[in-house]
Amino acid sequence: MKYQQIILIGISFFFAIQLTLATAYAQVASSSSQTAQSTVDYQLPYPGLLPDNPLYFLKMFRDNLTSFFLSKPLDKAQFELMQSDKDTEASYLLVTQQAGKTDLALKTFSQGQDDFTQAIVQVIDAKKQGYSIIEMSKKLDLSNQKHEQILRLIEQQMGQNDSGTFQIEHNRIETFTKEIKALH
Predict the structure, then answer these.
(1) Exposed site from 37, 41, 50, 63, fewest CB < 10 Å?
(2) What is the C-alpha separation between 136 and 126, in angstroms, rounded?
(3) Is the whole-model pTM more than 0.85?
(4) 173 is in which domain, residue-wise?
(5) Please, which residues bridge with residue 25 across strands?
(6) In the beta sheet, which residues pair with residue 45?
(7) How do the pLDDT tens digits run along the chain, 184 residues long?
(8) Number of folded domains in the chain?
């Protein structure tokens, strides 16, 4: 009886969290140096809890559980892309709205790129299974461009102190660009 109650409470908790979350979108404020660059018309979802929040582990638990139950490669790719976009936006918010969070912001951005890698892997798997990936590859391309734009904005906010780390992330974005073009 106790085991069933624990399972019921866990499932109830999961659905309670899922139902209370609403999708909101954040808009990146434009700066004078950004106007020289072209902006990408792609909305990043609002990340909700940021990684410095003490309850962030609950969000990660929920996201991992959701990912576990997705079986179709395009659904999983869509979910991984959303996670990547949320991490990218969270890293930007950590740099612009909270002082002293640069290391966490870079770690979060890198984690988002890991999720992006998984999204590409799932799209490749979907293509092998015969699914149409045209829309998803367009979405991946726009998202990748937006991630590059956000990375440049983060660099501007932080200065060029961690140029080695930034170069690694720029190289990953360049690799993603090539992989996305190969999907067509």
Answers:
(1) 41
(2) 10
(3) no
(4) 2-183
(5) 45
(6) 25
(7) 677 777 767 677 666 666 544 444 444 444 333 433 568 888 999 999 999 999 999 999 999 999 999 999 999 999 999 999 999 999 999 988 877 788 888 899 999 999 999 999 999 999 999 999 999 999 999 999 999 998 888 888 776 555 677 788 888 888 888 888 888 7
(8) 1
